[in-house]
Specification:
2 helices
Length: 75
């Protein structure tokens, strides 16, 4: 597994069903405005992982610092 693939495991995905699109829509909170989708939940997860990897790669290519991953905290 490459460092980019390992790094994507720390970013969040929000997966929601869209009646309008008849698909699962995936948003990445750390990268606002970037969406993908899948016809099944499993496909949406894969598309979300691919999007995160691409966003990391593009940021690195452009010399843009990566956002900090959101961390789930329990109290």
């Amino acid at each position: 597994m490459s460092s980019t693939q390992k790094q994507h495991l720390h970013y969040s995905m929000i997966i929601q069903w869209s009646d309008e699109d008849q698909a699962f829509i995936v948003s990445i909170p750390e990268f606002p405005g970037n969406l993908t989708h899948g016809d099944t939940y499993e496909e949406a997860v894969k598309q979300g992982e691919d999007l995160i990897e691409s966003l990391i790669m593009w940021a690195q290519q452009d010399g843009i610092p990566l956002p900090e991953p959101q961390v789930f905290a329990t109290h």
